[in-house]
Each structure stands twice: as structure tokens, then as C-alpha cells.
Amino acid sequence: MKRFDADLPSDQLKEKILDAADKRFKAQGFKKTAMAEIASDLGMSTANLYRYFPSKLDIAEGFALRCFIAKETILQRVVADKSIPNGVWLHAFASALLHYNYEELQKHPAINDIVVALCAERPALVDRKNSGELELLTLILEQGKADNNWQLGDVQSTAKAVLASWTVFITPVFMQHQTLDGLEKLLDSILNITINGLKPRT
Predict the structure, then answer these.
(1) How far is CA 183 from the centre of its chain?
(2) Which of 93, 131, 151, 199 is the most buried (most CB within 10 A)?
(3) CA nearest 68: which of 99, 101, 91?
(4) CB proximity list for 58: less than 8 A, separation 6 or greater
């Protein structure tokens, strides 16, 4: 068994723990992963592991936050890409969100365990996930209002409604039995309805 470097700063130790948990969670799922297994992978005692994360759910929360940041980084690039024509900006954002979620689920189907556990036990984390996506979506809607004269009342409320209409594209349990082609076609239909609904009335 490899020896854990206990001399590392606490924040670095936590990152190493999350690295080990990441591999376990993605390979065998949240439910089947034991704290003792994560500790063993790191060459540390289970008791020592609990000093840094009081529970497996706390580790899962740290893992989820990493995923949120990775996804938001990709979405931020879409929002910042000035080469995307304004008329298809919303579509590019939604498509990037769909592809990220679908590809992660295909690569790591066991990840759905974490989603289910965190939704049940850590609702504040679900709010954190939604807030990151809503913040970026709001920027696109505000720009659409300015450039395309989209008729929006409260932009935040509209962003929440649009994101809610994308539930099937952002929730692993709804995506796991779908094909990417089928999801893309459904997304196109929903976006057409959304954009037509935002256009000025003549």
C-alpha cells in the first residue's frame, strides 16, 4: 500500500482525496464506494480520512463542485465567443450544456448515483448548480433582448423558465436511455418554440 503524504497542506490533501474519490465514484458509483476504499487508495487510515471529510456525502459534494466548475468553464467559453452569430447564441449554449452532460453520462454512467444522493440530501448544492447555469443563461437572454428585441419581462424569471424546459437535457436520470441524436432533435424543437415565443409581436 502506498504511503500518504501527511505533510501536505490541508487544501492539497483534500484535493488528493477528491482525486481518489473521483476515480472510485466514476468506476463503481457512489453507493458501492466505501470510505475505507478511498482511504486505502491513498495509503491513509479511514479515521484520518474522516478528519478531512466527515462523511462520504461530503466527499461527493466536493466532487460535484468540481464537475460544476468544469461545466461552467465550457459554458463560459460559449458565452464569451464573439464569433457565434447572435441569433444562434442560445442554441450554442444549450447544445454545449447537452453535450457536456450526455458525454459525462456516457463515459461514467455510475455518476447518476451521486446525483440522486445529493438531490435528496443536499438541496443547497442543487441550487448552486442551477445558479451557475442561470447566471450564464441570463447574460445570453439580456443580450438577446438588446440585439434581437426579444420581449422579456423579468430576465431572471425567464431564464429560470427556459432552464426548466431543458430538464431532460440536464438531468442524468432522464438522459440515460436516450440517444444523443434524439435529444438534439428534441432540443431543437424546444428552442424553436422558446425563440419564437421571445420574438416581438407584430
Answers:
(1) 17
(2) 93
(3) 101
(4) none
CB 59 within 8 A of CB 17: yes
Classify residue 36 by burial, with Cβ atoms within 10 Å: 0-12, 13-18, 19+: exposed
Q: Which pTM value belongs to this model?
A: 0.86
173 is written with which cell numbers?
436520470
- Residue 114 makes CB contacts below 8 A (sequence gap 6+) with 25, 29, 30, 60, 63, 64
Out of 3.40.190.10, 3.10.450.50, 1.10.357.10, 1.10.8.60, the CATH code matching 56-198 is 1.10.357.10
Q: If we measure between CA atoms, which residue out of 172, 193, 173 comes closest to residue 90? A: 193
Mean residue pLDDT across the chain: 90
pLDDT in tens, 40-85: 999 999 999 999 999 999 999 999 999 999 999 999 999 999 898 8
Count of CB atoms within 10 A of residue 141's CB?
Answer: 20
Rounded to a whole number of angstroms, the CA Rg of the chain reads 20
Helix or strand holding residue 15 (H, E): helix 10-28
Could you confirm whether domain 10-52 is CATH 3.40.50.300? no
Q: Are 115 and 173 in contact (CB under 8 A)?
A: yes
Closest CA to 163 of 36, 55, 75, 74: 75
